[in-house]
Amino acid sequence: MTNHQQTIIDLRSDTVTRPSEGMLTAMFAAKVGDDVFAEDPTVNELERKSAELFGMEAAIFCPSGTMTNQIALKVHTQPLEEIICHELSHIKHYEVGGHAFHSGATLKTVNGKDGMLSAADVHNNINPDYDWLPITKVVSLENTCNKAGGTCYQLLGIEAIKAACLEHNLKLHLDGARIFNALATSKNTPKEMGNLFDSISVCLSKGLGTPVGSVLLGKKTFIRQARRVRKVMGGGMRQAGYLAAAGIYALDHNIERLKEDHQRAKILGETLTELPYVKEVLPVPTNIILFELQPFLTAKNFVEQLATQNIITIPLPHNKIRLVTHLDFTDAMLDKTITVLKKHIWYS
Ligand SMILES: *Cc1c(COP(=O)(O)O)cnc(C)c1O
User: Fold this and answer.
1) Is this structure's pTM higher than 0.85?
2) Are residues 199 and 316 in the same domain?
3) Which of 47, 54, 248, 257: disulfide with 190, CB 3.0–4.6 Å?
4) Distance CA 76, CA 346 (A)
């Protein structure tokens, strides 16, 4: 690491981490082959390992979580069909409207509490069978929900939604970009998730700290179709084992430690709650801190002043700020951040 990188405290996202020594060593040592021919042993191992972890039949390694979500929606729908999801979901806000582009499907968004849906939300949003309505086909949940501040479902809530989906013949997809953060807090197991969903997208490049990659999990027949869709999206990679090796390393080494990120996030949240220029801090169940500033301090100004102290964050609309803790955010950085938040003279 250069000195420059050492002094910067980057709280914009958990995607900003760089691969650790151990991860890089594993990547260098990877045995590789051509994954478009399904001949990369390390990719095959990552797919086997992640499917097994969730107790699902099969998996496919992809370049991004956007791709794994979009492949899942494409395989689950036909044009003129509809996906029920939360108003705050990533597939609605941050995937360039890919459901329309790739699948010719519509989204019906629901405004549930804390970024989560209930079984009643599902029941109430299934379209009746009229010529003029798209056919409801998929329910997509996000766990944790990023835009709601890293909130996570209780297992019971998902089970009720699953029952609604079974009753109405709907597929249930999980955008599990941060599923391991959710599981660390809800104390559930990956297999409990695998048991409930038709497809699960898991990001390896968020809290798990790899440079690239997501896996999509599902039944063998689903993954067979997913491989074709990945190819048409341009996501067929060749010696991708170097990247998959990072994923295997992350599954082995970086899941348990997520609770440290949660602990540091909680401390940051508690610190912010006591500061006079902070109006409101949302609960911090995982690694995302969302807070609103008092009107006398604008988010833009706050972010600029933090940047002068080498702490980088992003302003959100409505005078809000998001901070995300991650594996390159150390206790020393936490201490410095708290000192700056407390001592710096804040004004707009
Ligand atoms: C980051 C993220 C994605 C997609 O991730 P990319 O790999 O950046 O495409 C999907 N869903 C959620 C909730 C995310 O936070």
Assistant:
1) yes
2) no
3) 54
4) 50
